[in-house]
Design a protein that fits this description.
26% helix; elongated; alpha+beta; GTP Cyclohydrolase I, domain 2
């Protein structure tokens, strides 16, 4: 069976950025993510608690660029969660500007389109 799961509006604070104040002060970010996974039995499920914790805990590495975080997810999620066959992750910096939000996303594999804006 194929299933889809979404972790939406996942908000927390993290060190992320290249500007001096971004390296010392945590900022609010939001992750919206969509995953497709395959199971062979009812005991072979995706534990979304582990997935959520992995996403949050990854930011302990204090990434500098959004691109670095997304590439890390692109490489690590297939290794750590082999039942996931495709995903799309969007990271939004919620407070970097007063008049807009900054977001970046990645899709695995490249042709997957899991976030509909």
């Amino acid at each position: 069976m194929h299933y889809e799961i979404a972790l939406e509006n996942f908000r927390f604070e993290a060190i992320l950025g290249i500007l001096p104040f971004e390296r010392t002060n945590k900022q609010k970010i939001q992750i919206d993510s969509y995953f497709t996974y395959h199971t062979h039995s009812k005991n072979d499920f995706l534990d979304y608690r582990l997935l959520k914790n992995f996403l949050r805990d990854s930011f302990e590495q204090n990434f500098r660029l959004l691109e670095e975080v997304l590439m890390y997810f692109f490489e690590e999620i297939p290794k750590r969660f082999p039942q996931i066959t495709s995903f799309c992750i969007k990271i939004t910096k919620l407070e970097i500007f007063n008049d807009c939000k900054v977001s970046m996303q990645i899709q695995y594999p490249k042709e997957y389109n899991g976030i509909n804006n």
